[in-house]
């Protein structure tokens, strides 16, 4: 159950922030027009470069967030893609960054956790201060979009899954445990049949 901030949600968050600013500016302009008894012009109310300049600033500098609130923005989010070799490009595309200060001497955030097995490469990490904080996803690892697990659990209950709260180990000692997103949700007598129905 690892969380990663990927390009899509980051761009969506940035776009949402810029659009919120556009809405605020437009409502302020509308108030001024009403108070001054002037004609409302939409082309004047929406500045043409607000959206594009906001996106360009974040992508060009790497400071992710509002240009006017530079102190609260995250630095180093967008980077120039490494194109030295094909392998270095693949490596750069699969790089993850832990947002912790590089100067700290703490060993725990730099070590791989047991749950990283098969997800994070145990060998590929830079030397020096960023060691262990900059990691790389394994070649076969992929990131899925988060979605609620309740519909899947309901689907499996309708297909004969016994909920973990109602499970009696003495009655079904050889039942197969069912995990959804790392959480034990129930057991099933015929797991092969259930897998066939879920897939």
Q: What's this model, at a glance?
A:
This protein has 6 helices and 5 strands.
What does this protein look like?
With 199 residues, this protein is of the alpha+beta class. The protein has three domains: 7-61, no CATH class; 86-136, no CATH class; 150-198, Hypothetical Protein Ta0175, Chain: A, domain 2. Helices cover 35% and strands 10% of the residues. It contains six helices and five strands. It has helices at 7-35, 42-45, 50-61, 86-93, 150-158, 191-198; strands at 95-97, 134-136, 162-163, 176-180, 183-188. The strands form two sheets. Strands 3-5-4 form a three-stranded antiparallel beta sheet, covered by helices on one side. It has a two-stranded antiparallel sheet with strand order 1-2. A hairpin with a 2-residue loop joins strand 4 and strand 5. It is flat, with a radius of gyration of 25 Å.
| Biggest sheet architecture | 3 strands, antiparallel
Order of helices and strands: HHHHEEHEEEH
Helix fraction?
25-40%
- Which stretches are low in confidence, meaning pLDDT under 50 for 5 or more residues running? none
Radius of gyration: 25 Å
Secondary-structure class: alpha+beta
Integer average pLDDT: 87
Q: Could you give the order of strands across the largest sheet?
A: 3-5-4
N-end to C-end Cα span:
21 Å
Number of helices: 6
| Count of β-strands | 5
Principal-axes geometry comes out as flat
Number of domains: 3
Strand content: 5-15%
């Amino acid at each position: 159950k690892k969380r990663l901030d990927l390009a899509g949600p980051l761009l969506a968050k940035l776009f949402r922030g810029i659009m919120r600013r556009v809405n605020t500016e437009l409502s302020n302009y509308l108030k001024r027009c009403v108070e001054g008894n002037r004609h409302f012009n939409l082309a004047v109310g929406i500045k043409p470069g607000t959206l594009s300049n906001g996106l360009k600033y974040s992508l060009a500098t790497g400071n992710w967030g509002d240009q006017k609130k530079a102190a609260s923005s995250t630095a180093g989010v967008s980077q120039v893609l490494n194109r030295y070799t094909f392998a270095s490009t693949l490596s750069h595309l699969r790089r993850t960054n832990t947002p912790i200060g590089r100067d700290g001497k703490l060993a725990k955030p730099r070590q791989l956790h047991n749950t990283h097995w098969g997800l994070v490469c145990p060998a590929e990490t830079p030397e020096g201060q960023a060691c262990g904080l900059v990691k790389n996803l394994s070649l076969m690892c992929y990131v899925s979009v988060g979605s609620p697990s309740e519909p899947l659990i309901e689907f499996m209950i309708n297909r004969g899954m016994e909920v973990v709260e109602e499970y009696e180990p003495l009655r079904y000692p050889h039942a197969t445990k069912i995990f959804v997103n790392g959480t034990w949700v129930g057991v099933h007598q015929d797991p092969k049949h259930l897998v066939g129905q879920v897939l």
